[in-house]
Each structure stands twice: as structure tokens, then as C-alpha cells.
Amino acid sequence: MIEQVLIAKRIFLVGESYARQSEPLSAGLAISFFQDSVEQLIWCIAKHNDLVVKDTEPFTALLDKVDKSTAERLPHKAKILELNKARVGFKHYGNLPANSEPEKFRAYAYDFMLVACQRYLAVDFERVSLASLISDSKVRTHIEAAEENLAVGQINDAVSEVALARFFLFQKLSQHFPKVDQRLRSVDRLLGNIPELQGAGIQVFHYLTQYFDEVARFNAASLAGGSVGEHLYFERELPRVTQFGAGNTKVSYTINNRPSAELAERAIKYVVETSIRSEAATR
């Protein structure tokens, strides 16, 4: 049962990633994924409660059967029917929703799954962790630690852990691209020894090395199939991670880093989804 809840939650997170793109086609895809996540959960509930349903049971009929299976009414049923209508309008008739629609339907789907999981499955939807879908043990361990810290309100620790998870994820992805020889920076020192260039503060090769490092990170983000906008957002908002020769790491905050529960939650979702996609791409 929990495996199907995991699938429903992952579909929901994919919908969230499309919802953030603020573009009509992406808005339609987001709505479709939100409805798919609800439908996945409804089927899980039907099976868990041993309801008699056909394999070809229409979505609305399935809702009715779950609704009538207990004395408590199905939560947010009218909103879920509205979500389904929007999905049909997009998928079957090509009606592109307004950019504001995905956020409304995201809230509808989230509220439904939060209550339905608890009521019908005795599962806390918020605590269902997709970390188990990450095969890399180092990335998974830091994501699990981030989730645990977030759950108890240790926001700084949660943000630090997810920053480490992202660092090790991109470190692994970078193995698929040529490495920049850091000794390239030393050419600046050699050039500085030329009499005509002494005191000029030459750092050409330092900047080139830095540039190639950033290109490698962009390539890693592209390999993972994620949004470049999301990549830039977390490059800017998450603290910087430094790894030393012995393998130990240091997480450094600047005055521009503002840890928050929202940042931690969004970053956890990003790292989980990027990890799953990248593992599929590099398999």
C-alpha cells in the first residue's frame, strides 16, 4: 500500500515542478499530474478497503464508491471533481488553463491527499518520504536527515543537510563530464613572474577554471533533466558546501542565505526528484 502512496506523491511533485513554470502548456500538464496523483491514491484506497471495482472504473464512479464506503464523506469531493473537469478540458479538448490555475488545483489535490491518507489509510501524507527511491546512499542519508530536522523545526540543520545532499548529487553527476584540472590556476602565478606583467593582478586562468566548473555544473543539471531556473535558484539560496582533501565537508552561510522551512521543503523535493531522474538518465 505504501508503495502506491509513494507513487501518488511523486506524481504530485512532478505536477508541482510544472506548476512553477508559469506557462500555459506547463499549467495544463501540472493539472493533469495533480489529477493523476489523486486518482492513484483513490485506487490505492479502493484496494486497501477491498472495494468491488472494475479495472475500467471511471474516475468519478470510483470517487462515488469510496465516498459511500464509510460514514464519513469523501474530503474535498467537489474540488476534486473540479480538478478532474479541468484535466478533461485540457487533455481532451485542448483548453489551456490560466497561469494562476495550477496553484489552485495543487492546493485542492494536496488538501485531499492529506486528509484521505489519514482517514482511509492511517498514513501521514506529509511524512511519506520519497528518499527511499534514491539509490545513492550518501544523498539518501542527507535527505532523510533534512526531513527529520525539518519535522522537529531545526530549520538551519535541515537546510544544511539538503545542501549536502545536493552537493553530493552534483558531485556524482559531474563524473560524467571531463574534470577541470585545478592546476590550471597556477598559470596566473607563472604569468605574474614575467617582468612586464608583474603587479598586473592577472587572474585569467583562475576565472577560466571557475567558468569551466560552472559549465560542468550546468551540464550536470541538464543531464538530470531539471529546470535551469531551479538550478540557479538553489545555487543562490542554499549555503555553499566545501569538501576538503580528507573528504570532510563544511557548510558555509553568507548574509544572503536565509534558511526557512519553505526553502528546506522545496530543496528536498528538488533533490529527490532530480536524483530519481538522473539515476534513470545515467543507468
Sum this structure up briefly.
The chain is an all-alpha fold and 283 residues long. The protein is 65% helix and 3% strand. The radius of gyration is 23 Å and the shape is elongated.
Detailed description of the structure:
This protein has 283 residues and is an all-alpha fold. The chain is 65% helix and 3% strand. Strands 1-2 form a two-stranded antiparallel sheet. The protein is elongated, with a radius of gyration of 23 Å. The protein starts with a helix and ends with a helix.
Write the layout of secondary structure elements.
Elements: H1 2-19, H2 24-48, H3 59-67, H4 77-93, H5 101-121, H6 137-151, H7 155-174, H8 186-192, H9 204-223, H10 228-237, E1 240-243, E2 249-252, H11 261-281
Antiparallel strand pairs: 1-2
Helix pairs in contact: 1-2, 1-5, 2-3, 2-4, 2-5, 4-5, 6-7, 6-11, 7-11
- Major β-sheet annotation: 2 strands, antiparallel
| Number of beta-strand segments | 2
How are strands sequenced across the largest beta sheet?
Answer: 1-2
Query: Which regions contain 5 or more consecutive residues with pLDDT less than 50?
Result: none
DSSP helical segment count: 11
Features:
about 280 residues, mainly alpha, 11 helices, about 5% strand, elongated
